[in-house]
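Internal tracking record. Fields below are filled automatically when a chain is submitted to the structure queue. Please do not edit lines marked as system-generated. If the sequence contains nonstandard residues, flag them in the REMARKS field before resubmitting.
Queue: standard
Priority: normal
Entity type: single polypeptide chain
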Amino acid sequence: MRASPEPYRLTFRLPASIGFAVAPGRHQPCLHGCVLIVDKLGLVAIEGPSRQRCFDQA
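SYSTEM-GENERATED OUTPUT FOLLOWS
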């Protein structure tokens, strides 16, 4: 049996003008089977099963 591959991760910082409108925390489930993680400083991490799905979520 093969081990499952590591998820892909895309990270970016939200612009200050919209950062206040996004609640910090882990948002799941999201579109395309991804997990969206937002920290208090506006850093966003999108984790998903493929590179394409992470970019589609972004």
